[in-house]
Amino acid sequence: MENILVVDDDAEILEVVGDVLRQAGYDVDEAKDGKKAIKCIDAGCYDLVFTDLNLPKLDGMKVLKHVLDESPETMCIILTGYGTIKGSVEAIKMGAFDYISKPVKSDEIVMMVEKALKYRRLERENILLKQQLRKKYQFENFVGDSKPIQKVFELIEKVADTDSTVLISGESGTGKELIAKAIHYNSYRRDNAMVVINCGAIPEELLESELFGHEKGAFTGAHKMRVGRFELANGGTIFLDEIGDMSPNLQVKLLRVLQEQKFERVGGTRTLEIDVRIIAATNKNLINAVNQGSFRQDLYYRLNVIPIRVPPLRHRKSDIPLLIDFFFKKIDARKRNGINGFSSAVCDALVAYDWPGNVRELENMVERMSILANGDKVELEDVPESIKGKAGKVESVEVTIPKDGIVFDQAVEEYEKKLILEALNETNWVKTKAAKLLNINRTTLIEKMKKKKLAKPAVG
Fold first, then answer.
1. What are the residues whose beta carbons fall under 8 Å from the beta carbon of 339, sequence distance 6 or more?
2. Beta bridge pairs of residue 99
3. pLDDT score, position 244
4. How far apart are CA 434 and CA 445, in angstroms?
5. Angle CA(242)–CA(245)–CA(246) in degrees, nearest 5?
6. Lowest mean pLDDT among 14-18, 179-183, 452-456
7. CATH number at residue 232
8. CB neighbours (10 Å) of residue 340?
């Protein structure tokens, strides 16, 4: 039950407002002057304060200021007579929620209180949501300790709290939007909006209006003015996904926004200034698009200030067991279907698969197998044949033998050395993980390293 403080030097007003609020189910305290009101605020915890402006001992503006300073979550509504409406407007500018004119009406009081408390709840929910988002996109929540993905994490940490434009490239499903959100929620813009728009999912004729908004009557069907995504992102970040699909006409307009942070709505003449950080992403090779003339070179260089290349999952296979465990725990916390995990044979099969859909495909597969497993653990029989068939198979290797022949043992020795070095580099020279990647025992790996005189390169 919410607590409300009513402050007024008029005993009749105190009684009327107090009775109305009590009948509506609220706990109500009363104060006849400003000093008593401040004592009540310091001693209690109020969800809302009703206060008159003309009070003895201490005026209502000082009561309002005290509430804003000492209890900023408490809502304030001003009780005002005809002569103090101007003061009530000033109070709203200071931070009061609204004002009610005397003589007060019962239904107006209750409606105003409900409106103010609903606003307070939404504010709290918004704060909580932002805290949850920040926690979700903290760096320690990123999964992977392979060398390629660690480089990406280090780069995110360096650029997050800057205003530099970032271009994220990588195959579909590698987590480009996740990286964009990590950059935003670890920057000083985190309390403002992050607006996401997929440039490839919206027809060209609609995308301009989505990005920049339009004025009423700008085109057929534009019955009212519409605010665009850039305006919504003002003070925050806009994430332009699949930027490589943007038409040349829109590329010119985007270039201006990047250069000047200015634009006009479709059908408008007024220039709007914004303060927006731009993060773009693509699964296309933009250099090839530039060479083919489908993407502007000057826009490419404007976007590519900080390039982040996200490796495909097949290039960071040592991270697959970690990702399986992460996704399983996430799914288990939500569904709690009694599955105790994945067998080692399943993990081996999943590591052997190339994952053309990358991390997104792996997450979906972990969820699917967790739900459809026949026992209390996901076993090899629960793995789809398309994935299971890859387990234990070795990709074919093209070998060219010169006309004068090769020294067979030497060639095999060099290829084995190359495989071991690749596994060690992939796992940051963690021998247990490298051995698992090579499907050999750790002791066997150590013996081969000694024989080939392989040691971790010195740093610095």
1. 328, 332, 370, 373, 376, 377, 378
2. 78
3. 94
4. 8
5. 105
6. 452-456
7. 3.40.50.300
8. 12
CA dihedral 121, 122, 128, 129 (to 10 degrees): 160
Query: How many residues can be counted in the chain?
Result: 460
pLDDT, tens digit, for every residue of 45-88? 888 999 988 888 888 889 999 988 888 888 999 888 755 567 77
At residue 17, does pLDDT exceed 60?
A: yes
| Rounded Cα distance, 170 and 8, in Å | 64
pLDDT of residue 102: 82
Distant-in-sequence, close-in-space partners of 440: CB < 8 Å, separation ≥ 6: none
CB 222 within 8 A of CB 261: no
Single-letter amino acid code for the residue at 184: H
Query: Is there a contact between 119 and 141 (Cβ–Cβ < 8 Å)?
Result: no
Residues 24 and 109 in one domain: yes
pLDDT digits (tens, 9 = 90+) for 254-282: 999 999 999 999 988 889 999 999 999 99
Please name the helix (run of DSSP H) or strand (run of DSSP E) that holds residue 35, with its range, or none.
helix 34-43
Q: Which residues contact 410 (CB under 8 A, 6 or more apart)?
A: none
Domains of the chain: total: 4
Tell me the residue range of the domain where 337 lies: 314-388
Q: What tokens appear for 382 in the block? A: 């629960």
Residue-wise pLDDT for 148-162, tens only, equals 898 999 999 999 999
The b/e string for 3-35 (b: 16+ C-beta within 10 A; e otherwise) is ebbbbbeeeebbebbbebbeeeebebbbbbbbe
Nearest to 314 by CA among 282, 350, 276, 342: 350
Q: pTM to 2 decimals?
A: 0.61
